[in-house]
């Protein structure tokens, strides 16, 4: 049985009849233009927005799960995290254990290592760079060891090294038997790391399938309204908008 099963998910003016499923071990990429509905979809999956249709976690609708139960099983990394208090990195990551009511040192250390922040565990969050902070928020979600990890543009503020490093960690987390669902604007990362891609357009699912099925020049050029070149056999995969102006 699929761990996540989305059936005819709709939200007036924002999402229209989205369906897909994800099995344990899968990394799912959600791509699409600005405003396509990616964040809205992720928030519905996390049970943070009301919706029509069904969004099933292990057979139970996420809207019916008690908040603590939902937080144990479904972890969300929002597009922007922020702390109003100048807490230490380790204290913030430890907050990922709140749904479990413990302070599992092994889970906290493992999460910090996966996010590449173990060496800065005693530093204050307000004194970190944007990319460093982004990795702290990722570690916070990983520390909760959710069955389904949902992340909204987890690589957006990261340099090239940490883009690879974080994607490697998310891939490894999926391979451990979890479902990972991420919104991404970097198609090369999506092509390399994702098992399935859901391409969203104007609140609808334009196409869901393997990277090779979804990432075609015709489809991407139409949805993104610009000519896009695709070579999935290159290393790294090339999925880039063609320049129309001279250099
Ligand atoms: N709270 C809200 N109430 C009503 N409409 C909203 C709300 N938040 C976002 N929207 C609208 O819903 C649509 C989808 O927004 P969403 O944030 O899901 O897009 P996205 O695909 O994540 O975009 P981006 O790539 O820019 O992050 C947009 O048209 C947006 O203006």
TrEMBL record:
Q: Which InterPro entries match?
A: AAA+_ATPase, ABC_transporter-like_ATP-bd, ABC_transporter-like_CS, P-loop_NTPase
Q: Which keywords belong to this entry?
A: ATP-binding, Cell membrane, Membrane, Nucleotide-binding, Translocase, Transport
Give one Pfam family, short name only: ABC_tran
> In the record, what terms sit under GO molecular function?
ATP binding; ATP hydrolysis activity
Q: Does the keyword Translocase apply?
A: yes
Task: Give every ABC transporter domain span.
Answer: 1-227
Give the SMART domains listed for this entry: AAA
Specify the domain of life of the species encoding this protein: Bacteria
Q: Its function?
A: Part of the ABC transporter complex HmuTUV involved in hemin import. Responsible for energy coupling to the transport system.
* This protein's name: ABC transporter ATP-binding protein
Species whose genome carries this gene: Pusillimonas minor
């Amino acid at each position: 049985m699929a761990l996540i099963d989305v059936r005819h998910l709709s939200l007036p003016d924002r999402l229209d009849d989205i369906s897909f499923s994800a099995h344990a071990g899968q990394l799912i990429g959600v791509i699409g233009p600005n405003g396509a509905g990616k964040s809205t979809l992720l928030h519905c999956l996390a049970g943070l927005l009301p919706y029509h249709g069904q969004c099933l976690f292990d057979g139970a609708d996420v809207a019916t799960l008690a908040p603590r139960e939902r937080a144990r099983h479904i972890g969300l990394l929002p597009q922007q995290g922020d702390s109003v208090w100048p807490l230490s990195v380790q204290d913030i990551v430890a907050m990922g254990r709140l749904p479990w009511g413990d302070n599992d040192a092994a889970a906290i250390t493992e999460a910090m290592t996966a996010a590449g922040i173990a060496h800065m565990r005693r530093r204050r969050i307000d004194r970190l760079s944007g990319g460093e902070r982004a990795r702290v928020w990722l570690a916070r979600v990983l520390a909760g060891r959710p069955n389904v990890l949902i992340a909204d543009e987890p690589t957006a503020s990261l340099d090239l090294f940490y883009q690879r490093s974080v994607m490697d960690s998310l891939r490894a987390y999926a391979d451990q038997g979890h479902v990972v669902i991420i919104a991404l604007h970097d198609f090369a990362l999506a092509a390399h790391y994702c098992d399935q891609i859901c391409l969203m357009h104007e609140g609808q699912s334009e196409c869901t399938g393997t990277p090779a099925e979804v990432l075609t020049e015709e489809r991407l050029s139409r949805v993104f309204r610009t000519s896009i070149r695709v070579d999935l056999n290159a290393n790294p995969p090339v999925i880039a908008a063609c320049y129309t102006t001279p250099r």
